[in-house]
Write a structure and sequence with these properties.
Residues 54-76 are annotated as: Disordered. The structure is a single chain. Strands 3, 4, 5, 6, 7 and 8 form a six-stranded mixed sheet that branches. The N and C termini lie far apart (133 Å). The protein has three domains: 1-62, no CATH class; 72-167; 176-301, RelE-like (YaeB-like fold, 2-Layer Sandwich). By secondary structure, the chain is α+β, with helices and mostly antiparallel strands. It is rod-shaped, with a radius of gyration of 56 Å. 48% of the residues lie in helices and 13% in strands. Strand 1 (8-12) and strand 2 form a beta hairpin. It is built from six helices and eight strands.
Length: 307
């Protein structure tokens, strides 16, 4: 009685409690508070309530109790009971130490989990901020796209107006040959860039007997496409002719059929594409004559074999 010992103060469910189970001898002990200002702590480690001299004197004056005789049955039973009680208390202490270790490990896991959750929260906030920035950028691009579309629509309207003003009349010359020659040269002037006109002049040609009739039978849009194809033919640009797949006209659909010729084989009939990948695509048939002149033969559909 009266011994000063170190304990741990804790709160559980709103109640204050004391425990000696998890007190380590190496831990520092907090200083007890002062009950009277300037009077010092009310409790000091090592200073027991009963003076040691009084204890020694009391012990000196009090006769020592007789120790139980181990040889007697009662003494042996008492020692055995004390040993069992001590072993039980030691087992309880060990069990409490195990539970304490388990609780500390669980606490560490909880702290690690809490740290991971904090990191997830920070990442989520960062991603939310980035998403907000992306959404603002999308809104800005949408506004820019709407403005661009309006500008493009205005430009298309102006382009249609310009094309309408610059459109070639249906008939410029009364003579059909002169009228076609004008339209062909106009198409060449528009189609060939200014820097390329000296390199790609319009070559010599003549109009076959059925050509103008076959051309007039086509819709206006097809006639314009035919003029563009004839320009590519007469400037004799290998790349343009290759793109239009210029080839000899055969007497039959099979590849081994002989070419269509005249004048004893001196003039050979050729064909090139006016348009591709459309239904009833138009083709241009023409003669490569012995004198080097291109004679325009007809405008026909893709499967025609007549010159």
């Amino acid at each position: 009685m009266g011994e000063v010992v170190a304990v741990r103060l804790h709160r559980r469910s709103g109640h204050v409690g004391l425990s000696m189970l998890d007190v380590d001898d190496s831990e520092p002990v907090l200083r007890a508070p002062e009950l009277v200002p300037g009077g010092g702590p009310w409790l000091v480690p090592g200073r027991d309530l009963v003076q040691r001299t009084s204890t020694a004197q009391s012990l000196h004056n009090t006769p020592a109790p007789e120790a139980p005789d181990e040889r007697s049955p009662a003494g042996a039973k008492a020692l055995k009971s004390a040993g069992l009680a001590l072993a039980t208390e030691r087992a309880k202490v060990q069990q409490l130490e195990v539970e304490l270790q388990v609780l500390r490990a669980a606490n560490n896991r909880h702290q690690t989990h809490a740290a991971l959750l904090d990191a997830d929260v920070m990442l989520g906030r960062q991603q939310a901020a980035e998403l907000s920035g992306v959404e603002r950028e999308i809104d800005r691009l949408r506004r820019e796209l709407a403005t661009t579309n309006r500008q493009l629509s205005d430009l298309r309207k102006k382009l249609r107006a310009v094309r309408k003003d610059e459109a070639v009349p249906d008939q410029v010359f009364l003579d059909p040959d002169k009228d076609f020659d004008f339209r062909l040269k106009y198409s060449w002037a528009v189609q060939i860039p200014a820097s390329e006109k000296s390199r790609l002049p319009l070559g010599r040609y003549r109009i076959g007997g059925e050509f103008l009739r076959s051309l007039r039978d086509q819709p206006q849009e097809k006639q314009k496409k035919a003029c563009k194809a004839i320009v590519d033919l007469l400037v004799n640009d290998p790349a343009k002719l290759s793109a239009r797949e210029a080839h000899q006209l055969r007497t039959a659909a099979s590849g081994g059929s002989p070419a269509v010729t005249r004048n004893g084989g001196q003039d050979v009939c050729w064909r090139l594409y006016i348009e591709q990948n459309v239904a009833a695509a138009r083709r241009l048939h023409y003669w490569k004559c012995a004198d080097g002149v291109i004679e325009l033969a007809s405008v026909t559909v893709h499967d025609g074999t007549q010159a």
